[in-house]
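Methods, example record. To illustrate the input and output format used throughout this study, we show the complete record for Asparagine--tRNA ligase. The sequence lines were provided to the predictor; the line carrying structure tokens was produced by it.
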Amino acid sequence: MFDKKPILSNFGELISMNYKRNNFMTVPARVKIKKLLASEATEQQTNVKGWVRTKRGGKPVFFIALNDGSTINNIQIVADPELISENTIKDITTGAAISVIGKVVASQGAGQSVEIVAEQIEILGKADPEKYPLQPKKHSMEFMREKAHLRMRSSTFSAVFRIRHSLAFAIHQFFHEKGFYNLHTPIITANDAEGAGETFHVTNFDLDKIPMTDEGKVDYKQDFFGKETNLTVSGQLEGELSAMALGEIYTFGPTFRAENSNTTRHLAEFWMVEPEMAFYDLNDNMNLAEEMLKYVVKYALENCKEDLDFLAKRADDEDKQKPQNERQELGLLERLQFILENDFEKVSYTDAIEILRNSKPNKKKKFNYIIEGWGADLQSEHERFLVEKHFKKPVILFDYPKDIKAFYMRQNDDDKTVGAMDILFPGIGEIVGGSQREERLDKLTQRMKEMDIPEDELWWYLDTRKFGTAPHSGFGLGFERLMLFVTGMGNIRDVIPFPRTPDNAEF
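The corresponding predicted structure is encoded as:
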């Protein structure tokens, strides 16, 4: 079908010439590399498009590793310099986008079943090797964060973000199968669900000409919404309203915290999964969260095998560079299986405090935060000790002191604790936080007064306790925390495409 002479670098000109000569030319439809590598069919003509990872060789042939993002694996293109023009060969550099038409043949090398013998190559987009930053060598994670607009072309980050898609899909599928309704809660809101005050303000004011009241305060009545507003820290409160009508709902969207934390566990913009369920008590809530986490981890193991294998090897290599006492006891795939094979241990906060207070790390003052007694706010080191050292399985802590928890959590009869729960994972610590919500109007308003939360700002929330109140529960899953666990990445900035952190809102 094709002449065995140098192919014109201008593909459009080639098509035009063939069309004029034959009045017709069939160009094979593009096939994704993932599909091609999964097929054992050979001797068929195909068309693949992607980005060049590497090019090596010369005469009599050269080899191109091509990737289109559909899989962690590259497909090898075998090209004869006598068939491909010199100008085209020169422009086949790492990062360049190309289209290849050729024949699928059984691969002569190890690692893949098929390869493509090129008959035509078109350069879709050049990548100057003197300027393209992602050359085939090892780059630091910090360097890759600075190149977040390109880092998804690397093997590590393409694997991470394919898994991110799969986990998001699995979460939607889990709740859909259980009859939940997906609710889109507002991103702009006038409430601070957590009461922490760490919100990003939203305004339409010219910041050089902010209108003030006679008392010298900002006159929000002149702002776009006529009141003070902010980016949401949680969709929970709106989710509760919906659960009290639809029964079982979940939200899955971005949330924001103006918390000046430069750590490997904090982001200013992150995604939350927040189900809310009418007629669920705390135990129902804990069981649902455990079921969801196991479902999602199982889905990843069954559907992201190649990406997980790659990331598991990467995690093992990184672990070997750490001091012995900082290394993971289990590999990435073993940690995922660990979640599936173990029932989560349910432990009251009170019992957990006793375990921690009497532990060797606490007695020998190895903890950074020493546990003195009941009422302490547990830190990541305490949570990981309970999971990894003491129980050696995932842990659900429940019935926390009310003084360290939010106003909306149901107060227990002891008047000291609330029906809250946290799920703790190995290597991560807290991954889920939730509670049975306070459905009793008098108890809720009393707690709001104690915490200086104005009732008039949440009148709509209190209405659900006035009209048809019922027991209900819910929890929040930090999606990026789940991503850290499933991918084995060490920094939360590496599991979200474009991280938003203090002094960083690039791209």
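Annotations derived from this record:
The mean pLDDT is 92.
The chain has two domains: 11-125, 151-198+233-494.
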